[in-house]
């Protein structure tokens, strides 16, 4: 190592001697000119090296460019490891520079020409000079800061302990064996420069015993290895709750089947699990894997028969002795869900009831059981279930929301609003539904908390649960244009409007003949929309089907039969509506934006304050013999403050943007 430094010095001397010989001719001319005074001539010669000055400037410029380029390249490519070399400059004294330079080996780096080691050595010289000149500690590369300047690249590595032997032996605390990205913190009462005298004592490089290469690893590798070991100690493997003793011998085969399912290879997974079941009939997970494969296959093939087989397989899982509780729960929950998909609501409810008996304190199971009761209109049973859940978990958002929905529809608006507000406010899964925001706002409206109701509707619109704060229908086709009120031309119903207006007296007369409240032909409105008064209806068509009531008004129904977009509107109704004086209908919205609603005025009183309709923020009134068209998916409200009844014919028609395919396939409402 020392011989290389000597060769380097000799090499520089040769360059200087060659430079001197290159300038001999010009120097001889100067000597001849001042021959009379040899001493003065020699002094003049020494003080006038014109081209030497230029050469020096050129050399200085080249060095500066090289330094600039070298620093930039070093910082970008990470060729010089600042953390391993330059940080230690604060502990290198002038007497140790030669030793350090021999360690750095400026001309060789693992067999690769590496001039930037020389750059690092030069910077150490400069750094040490400035430290001594200003009598300050080295702050640029202070060891406690350990700035990660160099990048990790194929040309970057940390100096091993052997390479930094003299420095590490002299000051073992300079670079502790720790994570280079997480430097050790200074101990209390420990002052910088405490061991300054010891640090200045020169230590011979030859006196240092070099450690065995086999036992020395780079810092980066050591740190990575320790990090991995720590992770292994911290992470403890938890037993799979889905796995039984019978499953353990075939875990690899089970995982292979699961991988096939993840790749969407349902048929291959089915065959794989069937084969496993033949050789391991007591494996619950193998049977569960078959059920999962059949479930995926039924969706791919859109086959109800395969789905029935899937439901059967889920039921067989729980019958296997030793089936883990978690696997049993998952199997029955999925079985219930698939039964609901097929419309087998009673079977689904029975499945959930079986699971609830085994897990009476499992709120997830109980919540799903409550939904099952709601789906078959057994609200009182569902109410009991959700009250039980809240005894177990008083802040369960799902139970609060659903119980609030039930209580509100029973007519207790105050309690319903409280429960719904707490449930929706929990943001729990299953609570952020337009239905619950709809009923929360409605309950607030009915308890005269109008401003709060409007805030709820606005928040629902912001969440995308409603199309707007006014248009709050829940069964929508998003692309449809919308506005509160429509003209016959905009609605594409000009011909229908013409026929209705031409025959309005005939339609009125048939209605008056059957409008006998005593006989009960006009029935009370069933949706609970009335605030005060008396509101009754007589239905002719519902969900696209004609009712028996058409026999009482044959001429009117015959006219409707010639309006296919009205009589075939599976998301609408056609009915007479009579409203008595003093009636107020709560603000409400229709269920869908797929229809438009036409009102034909038959008997419109003019006395008193009259009757009027608000849709969104626009107001209208009726005229006898005229059709009024509006979109009832917008919030609307009615006041009937005249001195006699108001009678109209309501005719729902398909929205003009609905396609023929959608008219055939959209579910009825």
Q: How would you describe this structure to a colleague?
A:
By secondary structure, the protein is α+β, with helices and mostly antiparallel strands. Helices cover 49% and strands 10% of the residues. The protein has 26 helices and 13 strands. Strands 1, 2, 4, 5, 6, 8, 11 and 13 form an 8-stranded antiparallel beta sheet that branches. Strands 3-7-12-9-10 form a 5-stranded antiparallel beta sheet. The protein starts with a helix and ends with a helix. The model is unreliable at 1-27, 33-42, 44-50, 75-114 and 134-211 (pLDDT under 50).
List the keywords:
669 residues; 8-stranded antiparallel sheet; alpha+beta; 5-stranded antiparallel sheet; 49% helix; single chain
The overall pLDDT average reads 78
Rg from Cα: 45 Å
- Give the biggest sheet: 8 strands, antiparallel
Count of individual helical segments: 26
| Low-pLDDT runs | 1-27, 33-42, 44-50, 75-114, 134-211
Strand proportion, as a percent range, falls in 5-15%
* Percent range of helical residues: 40-55%
Give a quick summary of the entry.
This protein has 669 residues and is an alpha+beta fold.
Topology:
Elements: H1 2-22, H2 24-33, H3 38-47, H4 50-77, H5 97-104, H6 116-134, H7 165-170, H8 196-200, H9 219-234, H10 251-262, H11 266-279, H12 284-301, H13 304-317, H14 325-341, H15 345-358, H16 363-375, H17 379-392, H18 397-409, H19 413-425, H20 434-446, H21 450-462, E1 485-486, H22 494-502, H23 504-514, E2 523-524, E3 530-532, E4 535-542, E5 545-546, H24 554-561, H25 564-567, E6 573-579, E7 583-588, E8 595-603, E9 611-615, E10 618-620, E11 627-630, E12 636-640, E13 646-654, H26 660-665
Antiparallel strand pairs: 1-11, 2-4, 3-7, 4-5, 4-6, 6-13, 7-12, 8-11, 8-13, 9-10, 9-12
Helix pairs in contact: 2-3, 5-6, 10-11, 10-12, 11-12, 12-13, 13-14, 14-15, 15-16, 16-17, 17-18, 18-19, 18-20, 19-20, 20-21
């Amino acid at each position: 190592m020392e011989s290389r430094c000597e060769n380097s010095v000799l090499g520089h001397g040769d360059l200087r001697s060659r430079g001197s010989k290159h300038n001999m001719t010009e120097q001889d001319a100067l000597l001849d000119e001042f021959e009379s005074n040899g001493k003065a001539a020699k002094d003049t010669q020494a003080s006038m090296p014109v081209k030497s000055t230029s050469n020096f400037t050129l050399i200085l410029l080249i060095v500066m460019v090289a330094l600039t380029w070298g620093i930039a390249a070093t910082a970008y490519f990470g060729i010089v490891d600042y953390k391993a070399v330059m940080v230690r400059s604060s502990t290198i004294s002038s007497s140790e520079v030669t030793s350090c330079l021999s360690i750095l080996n400026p001309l060789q780096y693992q067999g690769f020409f590496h001039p930037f080691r020389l750059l690092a050595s030069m910077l150490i010289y400069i750094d040490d000079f400035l430290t001594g000149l200003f009598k300050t500690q080295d702050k640029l590369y202070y060891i406690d800061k350990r700035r990660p300047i160099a990048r990790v690249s194929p040309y970057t590595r940390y100096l091993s302990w052997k390479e930094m032997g003299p420095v590490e032996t002299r000051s073992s605390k300079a670079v502790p064996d720790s994570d280079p990205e997480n430097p050790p913190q200074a101990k209390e009462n420990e002052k910088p420069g405490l061991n300054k005298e010891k640090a200045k004592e020169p230590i011979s490089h030859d006196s240092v015993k070099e450690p065995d290469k086999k036992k020395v690893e780079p810092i980066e590798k050591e740190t990575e290895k320790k990090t991995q070991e720590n992770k292994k100690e911290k992470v403890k493997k938890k037993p799979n709750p889905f796995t039984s003793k019978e499953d353990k011998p075939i875990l690899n085969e089970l995982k292979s089947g699961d991988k096939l399912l993840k790749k969407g290879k349902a048929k291959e997974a089915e065959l794989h699990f069937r084969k496993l079941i033949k050789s391991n009939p007591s494996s619950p997970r193998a049977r569960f894997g078959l059920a999962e494969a059949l479930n995926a296959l039924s969706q791919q093939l859109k086959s109800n028969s395969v789905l029935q087989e899937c439901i059967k397989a889920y039921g067989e899982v729980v019958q296997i002795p030793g089936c883990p509780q978690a696997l049993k729960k998952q199997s029955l929950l999925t079985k219930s869900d698939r039964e609901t998909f097929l419309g087998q609501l009673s079977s689904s409810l029975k499945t959930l009831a079986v699971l609830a008996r085994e897990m009476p304190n499992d709120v997830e199971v109980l919540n799903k059981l409550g939904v099952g009761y709601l789906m078959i209109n057994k609200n009182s049973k569902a109410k009991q279930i959700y009250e039980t859940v809240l005894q177990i978990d008083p802040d369960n958002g799902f139970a609060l929301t659903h119980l609030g929905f039930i209580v509100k529809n029973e007519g207790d608006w105050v309690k319903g609003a409280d429960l719904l507000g707490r449930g929706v406010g929990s943001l729990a899964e299953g609570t952020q539904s337009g239905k619950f925001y709809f009923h929360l706002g409605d309950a607030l409206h009915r308890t005269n908390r109008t401003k709060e109701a409007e805030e709820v509707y606005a928040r629902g619109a912001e969440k995308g649960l409603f199309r707007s704060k006014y248009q709050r229908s829940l069964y929508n086709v998003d692309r449809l244009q919308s506005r509160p009120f429509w003209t016959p031309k905009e609605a594409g119903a000009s011909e229908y409007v013409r026929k209705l207006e031409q025959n309005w007296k005939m339609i009125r007369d048939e209605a008056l003949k059957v409008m006998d409240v005593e006989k009960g032909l006009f029935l009370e409105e069933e949706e609970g929309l009335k605030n005060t008064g008396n509101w009754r209806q007589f239905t002719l068509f519902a969900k696209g089907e004609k009712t028996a009531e058409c026999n009482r008004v044959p001429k009117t129904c015959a006219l409707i039969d010639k309006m296919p977009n009205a009589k075939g509107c599976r998301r609408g109704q056609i009915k007479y509506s009579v409203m008595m004086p003093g009636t107020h209908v709560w603000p409400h919205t229709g269920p869908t934006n797929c229809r438009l609603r036409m009102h034909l005025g038959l008997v419109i009183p003019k006395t008193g304050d009259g009757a009027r309709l608000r849709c969104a923020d626009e107001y209208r009134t009726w005229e006898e013999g005229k059709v009024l068209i509006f979109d009832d998916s917008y919030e609307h409200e009615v006041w009937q403050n005249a001195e006699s009844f108001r009678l109209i014919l309501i005719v729902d028609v398909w929205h003009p943007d609905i396609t023929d395919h959608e008219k055939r396939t959209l579910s009825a409402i």
